[in-house]
Each structure stands twice: as C-alpha cells, then as structure tokens.
Amino acid sequence: KAGVTQTPRYLIKTRGQQVTLSCSPISGHRSVSWYQQTPGQGLQFLFEYFSETQRNKGNFPGRFSGRQFSNSRSEMNVSTLELGDSALYLCASIEPNTGELFFGEGSRLTVL
Amino acid sequence: AQRVTQPEKLLSVFKGAPVELKCNYSYSGSPELFWYVQYSRQRLQLLLRHISRESIKGFTADLNKGETSFHLKKPFAQEEDSAMYYCALSVLTDSWGKLQFGAGTQVVVTP
Q1: Shortest CA distance to B59 belongs to which of B109, B10, B102?
Q2: From CA B60, how far away is CA B68, in angstroms rounded?
Q3: Smallest Cβ distance to A33: which of B46, B49, B97?
Q4: Contacts of A90 in chain B (CB under 8 A)
Q5: Which pLDDT tens digit goes with each residue over B40-76?
Q6: Share of chain B residues as helix, strand and coil, in percent rounded to the nearest 5
Q7: Among B43, B98, B101, whose Cβ lies nearest the Cβ of A42?
Q8: pLDDT tens for each residue of A57-107
C-alpha cells in the first residue's frame, strides 16, 4: 500500500507570497490532518478534514486554510507568508478503524 | 486547554540499560494517549497507544490517571531504539486527527 505522499518536498518563498501544499492520503483513508513542526513550537495541529469537510481547526490565523477533495486528497494554503511560517508541514492520513495517524515525509517551507 | 509535557529533551542511555521517557498531561476528562516515534530519516509513526495495552518493540506505557502520566519504558535499551519520541493526547472521541503533542524526547543509545 502506498504511503502518504506530500508535494512539494521543499520550497522557498519570500515574504508576502502564498503557497499551496498537497497531500495524498493512503487509499481508503478519508480523514486527513495537517501539522506544523518548528524547532520552537514543536508539532502543532493545523486542521483536520473528513469527507471534504473541515472537522477541526487549530489556533492558527486565517492566512492558513485548507480543503479536501472528493478523492480525499487535501491541500493547505498559506497566504501573505511571514518569516515565522518557515516550518515542516506534515500531513497525516487517518486509519478509519483504529484512528492511527500515518504521516507523510512533509513539505519543508522556507520563507525569506 | 489540554497540555502534554515531556520534561527531558535528551535521554542518553547505554545499550542494555533500562530507559524511561516521562510524559505528563493535563486534561480533566478521559484522554486517549499515544507514543509516536521518529527514527532517523524515517517518518513519524505510531509506537503504541494506551487503549491497546500492547508491548511494541519491548516498550510499554501505562496510563496513570491519578498522576496524569503516561511514561514509556523499556527494560533493556537497544541501539535501534535511538530516535525522537513524542507523547500525544487526543481528547475528541469522534476525531482522531487532532493530537496535542509534547515537545519530544531525543533518545540516544550508546554501545
């Protein structure tokens, strides 16, 4: 079974730009969660989607948004990038029977 | 709000010695607790969860509601146990995707 795929793996943006990150979950998994990982704040929950609906949202500003498509693939968008948005963004696909999170390798965003 | 505390940033142990990673949480309800692990150059993955009460790779963790702790233990550490370990808490029974993670403990097992 293919694992969670995140694209792009690395990207560099400048302040004020926007970015879109993509996540393809494991086949059969309908829930996807996003996390931001930084050295200072650790792993922080961004949002969770199930069947194209946002189920939960973390404490992040409105510049952070996401969506899920009918094939369960998900995207997250960050607008008006700030230096502090530099982080590893992790997507997790959720096994429906056990609730186990399967993580992708992440998208490493650098904001200059 | 719920909180997960892992007091040790780094734990260095010798091969064959016992290892215990501490995790304390604050939550007034009934939490679900997990240990996730990240080995070098690998993805973050589930190690164990308290409701399954399993021993995985020789590790066990007991939920102590009185002390609000979920410490991870292994009697004899192996070099392959060197990794980053995260304690995590879920409070929404209908939503497994929202986890509160601790800061993590880096374990280094030396021969």
Answers
A1: B109
A2: 16
A3: B97
A4: 44
A5: 999 999 999 987 777 789 999 989 989 999 999 999 9
A6: 5, 45, 50
A7: B101
A8: 999 999 999 999 999 999 999 999 999 999 999 999 999 888 899 999 999
